[in-house]
Amino acid sequence: MSPPDQPPASTPVYDSPATGLVPASDRDRPINLGFEAYHPVRPIPGKVRGENLLWHSLLHAGLLDAWDDALHAIQRRLGRDRTIWGVFLDLDSGALAWELRVLARGSAPDIVDTLRETLAPWLELAPGVAATPESAVVGLRFDAQTMSRGRVDAVELHERATESRETAVFRVSAEARELVSRDLVLEPKRHIDEVLPAIKRSEVVNFAADKRLLGRVLIPELFACQRLHISKRRGRDALCFSGVNVEQLAFTYKRFEYPKPMLAFLTEHQAELEHLLYDVSVEYREREGRIVYPTTGFWGSL
Amino acid sequence: MESYKGRFEPTRFEDLTVTVDFHCHSACRFCIVQEGMNYFKGVPWELYTAAVDDNRASQRYRRVTFTGGEVTLESRLFDYVNYARESGSFEHIRLQTNGRLLANMEFAKKLVDSGIDEYFVSLHGHDAKTQDYISQREGSFDEAIAGLENLVSLGVCVMTNTVLTTLNQPHLADIVETVRRFAPTRMEWWNYLPMEDYTDERELLSPMDKLAPSLREALARARGYGIETAVKYVPRCLLGDDAASQDNTQPDVVIVEEFYDIYPKFACAYEAKCEYAESCLGLHHPYITKYGWEEQLLTPYPRTTEWDEPEYGLWVGSDRPGQADAVATDQPRWTALIDGVAERHGAQLSEVILQRRACVYRFEIGAGGRVDILLSARTQEHALARSASFNLHYRNLRGDLGDEAIREGLTALVKDVVNTVIERDPGGMRLDQRKGMVGPEAFRPRPKSKGPKAGVKSLRVLNAK
């Protein structure tokens, strides 16, 4: 009984006078980072949509006014729960950054063109770039300066061969196309015989030198998830724990010391967000025998 | 989705543990209620007596265990014991103690005369030097040994409990040698749970490559002396010939609900591959964070059945006294609510999963059809239906739902189960005996001047002494 592909109708936003948050609805069809729809894990009444975490992160960064209209325009254009949003924390600088991911659908118009057209009133998106036929997903990253620049130079194209569990992610601009990540998606428990070697095949961590390091990257509190995305990137690896619950998301906030107002917001609304599953990513590399974490992030659906 | 390893709610439903109060005259270095004793109070008398009265009617618990803190310090202990004894509803009354005050024969005899027939005595060192260092109280070893001698002379059941840490890891077999003359009914070995000290700044967590060989030697030694053993929180695959001694069950503990918020969580890399994934917890999170997943050390027992993510957690056995290993549907009080329904639909009740907060009936019907009916405490939250005691939901519909016959069969089954529960539920049924028993009144005012120690997490828990 998988949920319908498309919600029957959109519902108004910011229509919860009690909290000012976007309420959840029976018509919500939340999706995970793999664009798989899932049933909410708790009853909907009294709950709010996961996108409130996105809006609050922008509010915290002082960027809500700048991005509110543009992101809602995408939501209106593509439909609810058709876009993935991500919020990332740079653990060195404390800066936040964001990502949108959109699933390209077969014969539909080029998704980059659709995004470009939708965002045109606010910024210019990757001029001259088109999604390739292999592009399953198109990613768009932005940070605190993006809107003032008025331009996003590149998009990320997630390309995966049919039936493959591996995805190659390319950052593509008019001038260049570079491989930025290779991702392998597995079930963490069922596929553990593949998971452990895949994590250990690393150019940035010498797991053989210290058996303890695996426990610092395959974080036990997040191990109970539905999918594990094992990523190899330039100068760093990453694990994305897909399908964790709100308690695990809160653990992530605390473990990686997310900004206090963000943690306070999540804590205040944790019970209202417990019906959803989230995707949490942790980038890592080894420095002087210790694991360091350049960035962490989490995703939900818009 | 979080597996039971991430939300383990241990119970075997047969034993009730009551925290009388939280004082102690030892200061064990591994104590997980060091902070908690500053603000924890025991179970209020009224709530305790209500639990006993309830058991008089339900006969749910065979045994009541009194603990603390060090429960022998509590003047009210005899009131608690007397009330339990006079209820006549418990087969055994157990005391969980460091044994020090039992060195006084007069006091030990008074305890025995009050009706306490089982003594669970902590012994964490094989000699005075080790034990006194761990307890930070000179003479504590000699007192405990004298207490054990007194108990043996009084002819009661004696058990020992040892918390496994770096401090005693080299001497576990020596502890067996120390206590063998008391012929304990059982020796329990509980791996240290660093609840106040996630990062193990106290350096008490023993790495498994050192702990497991020592423990195996101790277990073998005990076996040789005919002493039963039980091990908690050590992976089964590390226990060698004594793997069957692993027992991660726990009694119901009457304690503040927050206890379970910070109860340790566990994981094992080989959960999906191991035959004992449903009973072995693996390693706790602080251990994995400190020492890694031990993927080279752990050796899963090959599964003979397909692994499935245990959505509802560990099945906890029958609620009949002494039937913890009974079949998965042997929950008489709970199956009575739906007896006969499955048969009316050509279905089968394949499992009753009973936890503190939910009762799940799992039905199978036809080829591959399956549905779970979940009962949780009645609230005003959204529910498919409500009986007198419960909110009812259905979950995990499986089968070819495109097949009209299967879909209609499942629908009819769900409706019948729900209506039957509503019809038979007499009201007042509770999933969790403890629920609502202990509230804010169980806390002392917290001291204003003392913040948590560096590296110390908030603590509201009880473990072995």
Helix and strand layout, with pairings?
The complex is a heterodimer of chains A (302) and B (465).
Chain A: H1 51-60, H2 64-78, E1 83-90, E2 96-103, H3 111-119, E3 124-125, E4 135-143, H4 146-149, E5 151-152, E6 155-159, E7 166-172, E8 177-186, H5 192-200, H6 213-217, H7 220-223, E9 227-233, E10 236-244, H8 246-255, H9 260-269, E11 278-287, E12 290-292, E13 295-301
Parallel strand pairs in A: 3-5
Antiparallel strand pairs in A: 1-2, 1-13, 2-4, 4-6, 6-7, 7-8, 8-9, 9-10, 10-11, 11-12, 11-13
Helix pairs in contact in A: 1-2, 1-9
Chain B: E1 15-19, H1 45-58, E2 63-67, H2 77-87, E3 92-97, H3 105-114, E4 118-122, H4 128-135, H5 140-154, E5 157-164, H6 172-179, E6 186-191, H7 208-224, E7 228-232, E8 252-254, E9 266-267, E10 283-284, H8 285-291, H9 332-335, H10 341-344, E11 347-354, E12 358-365, E13 369-377, E14 385-386, E15 390-398, H11 404-424
Parallel strand pairs in B: 1-2, 1-8, 2-3, 3-4, 4-5, 5-6, 6-7
Antiparallel strand pairs in B: 9-10, 11-12, 12-13, 13-15, 14-15
Helix pairs in contact in B: 1-2, 3-5, 6-7
Report on this model:
The complex is a heterodimer of chains A (about 300) and B (about 475). By secondary structure, chain A is α+β, with helices and mostly antiparallel strands. Chain A has 9 helices and 13 strands. Chain A has helices spanning about 50-60, 65-80, 110-120, 145-150, 190-200, 215, 220-225, 245-255, 260-270; strands spanning about 85-90, 95-105, 125, 135-145, 150, 155-160, 165-170, 175-185, 225-235, 235-245, 280-285, 290, 295-300. Chain A has a 10-stranded antiparallel barrel, surrounded by 4 helices. In chain A, strands 3-5 form a two-stranded parallel ribbon. In chain A, helix 1 runs antiparallel to helix 2. The longest helix of chain A has 15 residues, at about 65-80. Chain B has 2 domains: about 5-270 and about 280-300 and about 435-440, Aldolase class I (TIM Barrel, Alpha-Beta Barrel), CATH 3.20.20; about 340-425, no CATH class. Chain B contains 11 helices and 15 strands. Chain B starts with 14 loop residues before the first strand and ends in a 41-residue tail after the last helix. The interface of A and B includes residues 196, 221 and 226 of A.
